[in-house]
Amino acid sequence: MRKSRAAVWVAVMLLCSIVLGGCGTGGQAAKIELGEVTRSVFYAPQYVALEKGFFKDNGLDVELKTTSGGDKTMTALLSGSIDIALVGAETSIYVYQQGSDDPVLNFAGLTQTDGTFLVSRQDVQNFNWDSLKQSVFLGQRKGGMPQMAGEFTLKKHGIDPHQDLNLIQNVDFANIAAAFISGTGDYVQLFEPQASIIEKEGKGHVIASFGTESGKLPYTVYMSKKSYIDGHKEQVQSFTNAISKAQQWVNEHSPEETAKVIAPYFKDTDQAILARAIKRYKEQGTYAQTPEIDEKAWNNLLDVMDAAGELKERVPVSKLVEPSFARQAAGSGN
Q1: I want to staple 118 with a disulfide (CB 3.0 to 4.6 A). Which of 64, 139, 184, 208 is the partner?
Q2: Domain boundaries in the chain?
Q3: 116-214: CATH architecture
């Protein structure tokens, strides 16, 4: 009888593991639809989390899609076609300014500086910001963080971007690097790896960093609707834990090692270029060390938006940042 009962118990457990993927602590991975505003080496820790299985280790099945632009990303989030968005924190402020019964909350930071660089067509020695005056400057989209951080930096150096420059802002984000290569502009504001690619091809020269100049910002963050966060606290915590672990991994490994891991997401980019871009970002502290969003950095974001004329009122960090997930992740050693 004992042998019979034992055999039945083993059979039940085996069936359980097959049908449910494991009873008790196992179970099916929770599905999360994640939208990123663009595909960029700027988001290296995110691709590390995906490629190294950190999301899976935390019981998540994360499907990544590129939603191409802040407005499209926010539309996807508000409509429910994605659960979590990786996009500039300013977009949550725009939604708040329009009024919403279900506000978008920022719960984890990925990058903490602007990710663009000033690229000159000529090899400028002893660069001075005044040399930009009266030049043709190929900028970014109005109201987006790259353009606002760029304008913030220019104004800090006594340059009115709309009076002292011949500013071009009608080129689509995806085509800015190509426009510069084809001959448009004396200077251009570019993310990596485009800046390094242009340098390698001898088509331009990186002469300054807007990330260094504009200071710490909650530049690119993970956000979701309050209703989603309230209904999926365990998943949001698991997601943040995975990002925190990836941030630590990038911090502890060389640019070359990181480039190798994220290479599948940049199949048309040489790994040496990826490593060069990652090195540049690490040296200026672009990748956040933890997912926590700092109040001082948030206030700097408000200053940047205010200077650009895009802020209706100063929104305190407590209104749009949910800090508990990042605090727990940062303190857990994940």
Answers
A1: 208
A2: 27-113+217-332, 116-214
A3: 3-Layer(aba) Sandwich (3.40)
> Do 27-113+217-332 and 116-214 show the same overall fold?
yes
| Res 324 pLDDT > 90 | yes
Query: Confidence band (pLDDT; 50, 70, 90) for 68?
Result: confident
Taken as a whole, the chain contains a residue count of: 334
**Separation between Cα atoms, residue 239 and residue 17, nearest integer Å:** 25
Q: Does position 253 have pLDDT exceeding 60, yes or no? A: yes
How far is it, in rounded angstroms, from Cα 51 to Cα 258? 11
Element (H, E) at 253: none
Q: Which two tokens stand for residue 123?
A: 């090899």
**Which has the closest alpha carbon to 46: 295, 218, 192, 240?**
240
- Give, as one character, the DSSP assignment of residue 28: P
Distance CA 103, CA 95 (A): 7
Q: What does pTM read for this prediction? A: 0.88
Tell me the DSSP string of 75-126: HHHHHTS-SEEEEETHHHHHHHHH--SS-EEEEEEEE-S--EEEEESS--SS
Token duo for residue 134 = 């009266």
Q: Which amino acid is at 310?
A: E
In percent, the amount of the chain with pLDDT more than 90 equals 84
State CA 241 to chain mean position distance. 16
Predicted local distance difference test score (pLDDT) of residue 174? 83
Please report the pLDDT score of residue 69 as a whole number.
87
Contacts 24+ apart (CB under 8 A), 153-157: 153/210, 153/213, 153/214, 154/129, 155/307, 156/213, 157/129, 157/130
Fold classification of 27-113+217-332 (topology level): D-Maltodextrin-Binding Protein; domain 2 (3.40.190)
